[in-house]
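Take a look at my tokenised protein here and describe the backbone shape.
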Amino acid sequence: RGGGGQAAGQGAAVRGPIDGGGSWDGFEPRTQAATPAGDDAAGAPIAVRTRATVRLGSTRAFVRLSRRVAASSGRAHGLRALVGVGERPIGRLGTFSVWDDLATAQRFASDDHQHRSAATAARHDGWFSEELFATFAPVSTEGTWAGVDPLRQSM
């Protein structure tokens, strides 16, 4: 949680994307969705993957505001697990998180002041040259995350 998840025997299996927005190297979650949004996501745990290529001139602002979002997400209701993911130390970054359900994840994205401020600044100032948001239905896990299986119980 809060960007500092500790994994032991990490692993998760997810079904194809349920929904999302943006694209990454031609992958568009809405056009490649395995299950239409809402078919069986209501009330079930949801995995969320974000990715972005941060423009070099936006890195400082992105890092500053992403730290605030990470701090507020650590207190987010319904967040079971969260880890930052980077393909490169600077530039190609993202997150992987597991939430109680889709509605809870959407509520955080729209209602959390820090997240909303960062998302607004990113759009307004053109921070990203490419970005993706995709939701998946987790079907199984192996091991624990900070001592808890994120699909079995809330953290």
In short: The two ends are 8 Å apart (CA to CA). The chain is about 25% helix and 35% strand. Residues 59-73 form the longest helix (15 residues). The beta strands are 7-8, 12-22, 46-54, 79-86, 92-99, 128-141, 144-145.
